[in-house]
Amino acid sequence: MFGNLQDKLSEAFRKFKNKGKLTEADVKEGMRAVKLALLEADVNFKVVKDFVAAVTERAVGEEVLESLMPAQQVIKIVNEELTALMGTSVSKIEIASAPPTVIMMVGLQGAGKTTHAAKLAAYFKKDGKHPLLVACDIYRPAAIKQLEVVGSQVDVPVFTMGDKTSPVDISRAAVEHAKKSGLDMVIIDTAGRLHIDEDMMGELVAIRDAVKPNEILLTVDAMTGQDAVNVAQKFDSTLNITGVILTKLDGDTRGGAALSVRHITGKPIKFIGTGEKFDALEPFYPDRMASRILGMGDMLSLIEKAQSAYDEKKAEELEKKMLENSFTLDDYLDQMKQVRSMGQMDQILAMMPGINQNALKDVKIDEKMLDRTEAVILSMTKEERNKPDIINASRRKRIAAGSGTKVEDVNKLLKQYDQMKKMMKQLSSGKLGKMFGRKGKFKMPF
Fold first, then answer.
1. Which residues are 158's β-sheet partners?
2. Angle at which helices 143-153 and 113-126 pack, to 10 degrees?
C-alpha cells in the first residue's frame, strides 16, 4: 500500500535531514520534491497545489527555521497536513435512531460493490448488529446469485425478489421485511455500469427517494487513481453521497485516490478494503494512514488487530503456564494460529514503524509455514508435544515422515519453540497478562 509514494517522500525528506539549519530556499527545494512525489502518485493537481502551499506556509515560519531539529518539524507538519487532507478524524456510519439503518451501496461495475456489501454486513454483524443484504442488481448476469453466495459465506440473510421486479420496489419491500423480522441494518446492493449513464443514475435517485437511506456509500477502486476521484464527483453531484469505501487499497502503490477524494468531494472515506477475505475491511483513520504513508507505521491498527484476535481467557492460561514453566508445543501452535488470525503477515509487517513498504515487495512470506508447523506438531505423540526434550534423532525422522516434511523442518520448529519458551520465561509475573489484553491494555512485546 502506497509503497512508491512512501519511497519518493523519503527521498524528498533527505534534502532536509542533511542540514542542521534550514533556509526558506531549502524548504522550497524540498517541497518541489514532495510536489513531484504526489503528482507521480496520481494525486489530483489541485490537491497537490493546495497541500504544498499549506505545508510551505507553515514550514517557512520561525517555528521551523529557528528550530534545533528543523527536518523533524517539517515532517511533523507534512504528517499533520496529510491527516487534514484525508479528513482529520474517523467518520463513522450514521446509525438510525429507529431501526433499521439503511445503507445504499453505489458504484461502477467492477469496483467491488457486492463483495464489500458482504464485508460491511460481516463487519456490523461482528459488532452485534443483525444485517440484511438486498439484491437490487437485476441486470448483471448472476448478480443476485453472487450476493446470495457471499451472503451465505458471511452468514447474513439475503433479500431477493428475482430479476423481474423493479429495484425500487425490491428496496421498499426489503426495508419492510427488515422491520417485521427484527433486522436492524439493511444493506442495498444496487446495479452498476461500466460507465456512468442517465438510466443508472435515475434508478439510484429513485431508490434513494423511496427508502431514504441513512448512508449512501460509493465504492471506488483505489487503483484507478484520479479516475476514482472523477467517479466520486459525478456520483456525489447526483446522489449527494455520504461517504466512500476505497476498495483494493492493498494493491494501490500510488495513493492518488486516498489523498484526493476527501479534498475534492468534501465527503469522507469511511472504510477501506485491504484484501480478498471478508474480514479485510477497516474503518479509515486519516491520522494512521498519514503515518503509514510517511513510514511511521500504524501501531494502533496493529494493536487493535491483536486485541480482536487474542482470547483473554487463553492469555490468562498462557500466563499461568509460563509461571509454572509448562509451555508446550500445543501452546506454541495455538500462539501461531492466533497471530495468523490477525491477517496476512505482509500487511502486519507494513504496520510496523520503520518498515519500508517497497522493501516488502522483495520479501517472500511463506503463509503456508503454519500448515507445515501444524503438520509437524500433530505428527508427534502427546508425550513428545508435552516434553520436546525427549525427541531424539530417530523420533525426528519419524515425525518428518509422518508430516510429509524434512528432518530440517522438525529441527527448525524445535529451535523456534525453544527460543520462544526462553523469551516467555524472561517475562516477569503480571507482564504477560498486560501484553495480551488483560483489562484491555494490550502492549506489544518489543
1. 133
2. 30
So what CATH class is 101-296?
alpha beta
Mean pLDDT in order along the chain per 10 residues (446 residues)? 76 75 84 90 90 90 72 84 88 93 94 94 94 95 94 96 94 97 96 88 96 96 85 93 90 76 91 88 88 64 55 66 75 76 60 52 60 89 92 94 92 86 59 44 36
Whether omega before 353 lies within 30 degrees of 0, making that bond cis, reads no
* 194: nearest Cα among 113, 270, 98: 113
Domain boundaries, the chain: 3-85, 101-296, 309-440
Instruction: Categorise residue 437: left if φ over 0, alpha if ψ from -120 to 50, beta otherwise.
Output: left
**HEC secondary structure over the chain:** CCHHHHHHHHHHHHHHHCCCCCCHHHHHHHHHHHHHHHHHCCCCHHHHHHHHHHHHHHHCCHHHHCCCCHHHHHHHHHHHHHHHHCCCCCCCCCCCCCCCEEEEEECCCCCCHHHHHHHHHHHHHHCCCCEEEEECCCCCCCHHHHHHHHHHHCCCCEECCCCCCCHHHHHHHHHHHHHHHCCCEEEEECCCCCCCCHHHHHHHHHHHHHHCCCEEEEEEEHHHCHHHHHHHHHHHHHHCCCEEEEECHHHCCCCHHHHHHHHHHCCCEEEEECCCCCCCEEECCHHHHHHHHCCCCCHHHHHHHHHHHCCHHHHHHHHHHHHCCCCCHHHHHHHHHHHHCCCCHHHHHHCCCCCCHHHHCCCCCCCCHHHHHHHHHHCCCHHHHHCHHHCCHHHHHHHHHHHCCCHHHHHHHHHHHHHHHHHHHHCCCCHHHHHCCHHHCCCCCC
pLDDT at 394: 93
Whole-Å CA distances, 305 to 126, 250, 308: 14, 16, 5
Enter the pTM of the model: 0.68
Q: Is 326 left (phi over 0), alpha (psi -120 to 50) or beta?
A: alpha
- Alpha-carbon span 72 to 22, nearest angstrom: 11
- pLDDT recorded at residue 270: 95
Q: Which CATH class is domain 3-85?
A: mainly alpha
What is the model's pLDDT at position 437? Answer: 45
- Bridge partners of residue 282, in order along the sequence: 272
The CATH code for residues 309-440 is 1.10.260.30
pLDDT of residue 211: 96
| End-to-end CA separation in angstroms for the chain | 24
